[in-house]
Write a structure and sequence with these properties.
3 helices; D-tyrosyl-trna(Tyr) Deacylase, Chain: A; two-stranded antiparallel sheet; D-tyrosyl-tRNA(Tyr) deacylase activity (chains A, B); RNA-binding (chains A, B); DTD-like_sf (chains A, B); alpha+beta; homodimer; about 25% helix; EC 3.1.1.96 (chains A, B)
Chain lengths: ~150, ~150
């Protein structure tokens, strides 16, 4: 269900983590996928929404953004999120092409890195953006006190 | 994006796991959420789709259903999957009520257990359905060789 009823340009799935491999602790895991027709103008809006949405839990149980926590960000490309079930199979016909997807993904990561670097609270805490390699299978270990999984479509 | 463009009745997020806490190995993790208006008639269709979709990878790299693998199933209630972002906040207005959600969740789990029990390949292999407790935060450890995350809406 996209935010406005139209066909989405992207999907992002968010999970909370205490610890995830790729050496990210106490942070936000973002699985991201781009659809055909997604364009670069989308990216700043995605970054703004995902890094400012109040889904990170403080020790007091309050929910703040990952920038305010502050916490690490782990970005994992998940083209599988673009799949659509048909019978017993998944089809990925709406996914962006591989080159476009890589370009959008890379720019998305870069914009997230810039946002953290520009946020003094994050710079002082030394929190980082880690990201998986586009196109490769990425082993992942995730510990979470409740994954708190959210889906956002753009 | 629902399968037919209408407002969905449920969302299921699937991930592959090598090992997940709650003692499930080599199986399928299903995060499930029900929306307002979801009714029981939906459940057999959900079970049929989720347990037969070919998203489980064999050692040969072939994709089969979890029933054919065969593998364990870990079902985790994730009402957060029903959220919709508004500004910096998530809203859960479309989620089912707590009682309805619990009822649907419990029946969904039961139907999955029955399906595995009725499948000789699964019974012989001794694979099981494990599930989290509705309404409680559930710590989760997930190891995966690529989470292979898929979203299905019903």
């Amino acid at each position: 269900m996209s935010e406005s009823g139209r066909i989405p340009q992207a999907r992002a799935l968010l999970q909370q983590c205490l610890h995830a491999r790729l050496q990210v602790q106490r942070g936000l895991v973002i699985y991201v996928c781009f659809f055909k027709g997604a364009n670069k103008e989308l990216l700043p809006k995605m970054v703004n929404t995902l890094l400012n949405v109040k889904l990170s839990e403080t020790e007091n149980g309050k929910h703040v953004s990952i920038l305010d926590l502050p916490g690490n960000v782990l970005i994992i490309p998940q083209t599988t999120l673009g799949g659509r079930v048909k019978g017993r199979n998944m089809q990925y016909h709406s996914n962006s092409g591989k080159e476009e997807g890589l370009e959008l993904y890379s720019q998305f990561v870069t914009l997230c890195e810039k946002e953290l670097a520009a946020t003094s609270k994050c710079a002082e805490a030394g929190v980082v953006v880690e990201h998986g390699t586009y196109g490769n299978r990425q082993a992942l270990q995730l510990d979470t006190n409740g994954p708190y999984t959210h889906l956002i479509e753009f």
